[in-house]
Amino acid sequence: MLDLRKLRYFLTVAEELHFGRAAIRLHLAQPPLTRQISALETELGFKLFDRTSRTVTLTAQGRSFLPYARGVLEQVELAQVIAGKLAAGTAGQLALGYVSSIALSDLFSQTIQAFAQRFPDVQLTLVECASGSLGAQVADGRLDIGLSRLLPQGEEVQVLSLGDERLVAAVSSDSPLASLPSVNLAQLSAYPVILFPADYGSGLNQTIEQLYRRHGQPLRLGPTGRQITSIIALVAAGQGVALVPTCTQSLMNKGVTYRPLMEGDACAPLLVLTRKEEQNLSIRAFMTVIDEVVRAG
């Protein structure tokens, strides 16, 4: 295996084409430098330099070998830089899981943008999934961080609350509800509610079911959608109403009107899930960024 130190000596002499000046740059006496170059030539099996008492020039083999030697040293320097960033948590990989209703929020987009700008060497993988599976995927390491609306089962996951997001009613623009400035659950109870599938493990479903139960209103089940976008499409098609986070209003579907809910407790939680005792520095960096975005917002 080639000695990296000898490659550095070779590169310096090739740049200077003078052993004396190269030795000064390397903080080395000239005789040891000459011996190291000779040893490298022996290892390689060919001469690198033609030397006279007055000139030093690269041989044909030396010129051909030079870019490869330079490339090796550049890769070593890059590896050292990346190693330092990995040690500092500013490089690596990060798998972020999220539920579809959170992906529409300003918090989500601003955090992703800020993190990517600050830590460009961290490869961020985004995985959309149901709230019911997020906790398990964080616990077993498939995901590093989860953005959820559902408290996970088990003790392996640490939960940080980022607060609550108000819910609004999405109603068909043809519905009498669309003409009202705001609506309440008593008015909505006359309509089927479009939810995520029951086996989806949706935190938003759980929030809506608990809200109807607290206010003593019957919950009529309508068709289901596996994405927040499909739920809104079903509302536009007149298949029922939906209770969705405020950020969903960015989906300006034709045929859908959003109305505030009168109930003060009509809110959906926003939770960040990580593994307990997690030492991954990239995760800590992401948590710092999302905390800054929450405080700024």
TrEMBL record:
GO terms for cellular component: protein-DNA complex. InterPro entries: LysR_HTH_N (IPR000847), LysR_subst-bd (IPR005119), WH-like_DNA-bd_sf (IPR036388), WH_DNA-bd_sf (IPR036390). It comes from Pseudomonas trivialis. This is LysR family transcriptional regulator. Pfam families: HTH_1, LysR_substrate. Residues 2-59 form the HTH lysR-type domain. Keywords: DNA-binding, Transcription, Transcription regulation. It comes from the Bacteria. SUPFAM superfamilies: Periplasmic binding protein-like II, Winged helix' DNA-binding domain. Coiled coil: none annotated. One of its GO terms (molecular function) is DNA binding. PANTHER family: HCA OPERON TRANSCRIPTIONAL ACTIVATOR HCAR, TRANSCRIPTIONAL DUAL REGULATOR HCAR-RELATED. Belongs to the LysR transcriptional regulatory family.
